[in-house]
């Protein structure tokens, strides 16, 4: 276990501190006990409660302050010895005086000390009838202090003193004689793992008499035989009778002493049993209180009846002089007295006159309001010491009613504060302790449950009545609604028939729209086909010219005599190279118009490069320079041919802008890159841009600025359809310095790279 964790646990029973307090009252009357307890963080009722335990730091602060106030460095050992005094004897009686002698007490010391401390374990071993060895093992090294070791030594002395001295002789304790001898061969404060004590005390009269009886029998037998032999039988009867009388007297004295010790032990045990029976009777009343409240309160449906019955049960079962129940009055925002017992008319008038508003700015600080809001109990054994806690009005009422001590506990249900339960003592019977708080807290919780039960039952009865009225009204409404539903059913039937007809018409319209889109796509392809035929012508013109030159060169070289085998091979190779290039061009155009069957992942840069290769000759012929910049390797999932067609439509749109406006320096910059995880293609030209008035219309179908004889107006529309529906992605256009820029964005798969300049 972690040291800090054990140090924060309750380790020492309040009876240890109580022995110190009683010693201070007896010998050091000048010491302010209230100041001492306040410095240690203890309450007087906690010390009086034998079920309460204190932490190591509280005990340390208590001893530190006590040492300063008394100036006695041996105060811890004296307090241990003081356990044998009549003042403290009641706390030790049931553990020690019920035994026969000190040796028997040390035999069960491990069990007895467990009721006083949890910081160490005790083990005893009997060495002789008046000598024991006690080994004390700490639960954690470094936890206890040296003064606690000295207090243990005094406690061991107290155990012996209880049996070897009359209690009246201890009134002037510790000025006593014949203290037991205690040796300490091992001590944790000298670096040893345990504390070992050897306790030796004077033998009791009972021990001496018993030993004398056991030794006297063989001595008398030997002496009688010797005297009979020396006197030759004369006076033998007298000698025998005298010896027998002497032995009987010693035996009788030993027996009487032993019976006296047993009788004293039985007397102490009887007193412990009486005390235990009183505690059992108290526990029985407490149990019956909880049982009766729990059993009877569940049958009440009215709050006033429930509160009166609770007050009656508390008066019969609890040992407190009087009690009261305050509940929150939500309308007035204050605590209000609702039930009580044990109060006279004048005392009740004082309680009813208390002004206990829940508003923090109302009557000032008050213990009842604090108990309600903080949902924690308050225990007060001394009104004068708790003036600040009580509040001015509550203190005045308590003093007027003669209250000596009281407890107030919050009545809570489902985390909501409902009121306060109080119990008071007028006569000084005993200090109120934590078990009283626990008992009243349990009672308060049952009251809270019963309070909610009454509210729920009342609400249920009201809801039942309202439900019956609503059912009656609802029945009439349902009959009226049934007639309306019949009429609505007839109308719905007609509406359904009309809706079916409208749905069929809409489906037909959708089919027609789909057919129109297919026709538009085909029209766009046909338009692109016309463009491609022109591009094919441009692509083939140069290779065909080159082939013609190769063929024309052959007869010339033959006439000159230079037509060698080597020259012929080079010419054929050149011819085949041009022919292969032309064939590849045919494949590129054919693949461009082949429809894609399914979406695939493709490299954007490759598709853009192939698209540019289809128009490079026609663009070069028109003196349009195309600059391609590629950063990274973005990938898109879709139909590569359709994507290529979208790029081609944008390029043709830029070409037409150059031709219409007669731009001399014609440039198109195509960029392929990634931006924030998306694949991007931009096509920028310097053709003067798009007029702002038509910028938002350029993607509409059949929209063109060139006239029907020069353009179809579906190219950009089809490009947007391909990008945004089939990929899906996004196609936008904007004006930039000197021209326009079309931007294609689509979900990408490659890592992000910088955008090209």
From TrEMBL:
Residues 457-502 form a coiled coil. Signal peptide: none annotated. Residues 535-750 form the Histidine kinase domain. It holds the Pfam family HATPase_c. PROSITE patterns: HIS_KIN. PANTHER family: PEROXIDE STRESS-ACTIVATED HISTIDINE KINASE MAK3, SENSOR HISTIDINE KINASE. This is GAF domain-containing protein. Keywords: ATP-binding, Coiled coil, Kinase, Nucleotide-binding, Phosphoprotein, Transferase, Two-component regulatory system. It comes from Geomonas diazotrophica. InterPro entries: GAF, HATPase_dom, His_kinase_dom. It comes from the Bacteria.
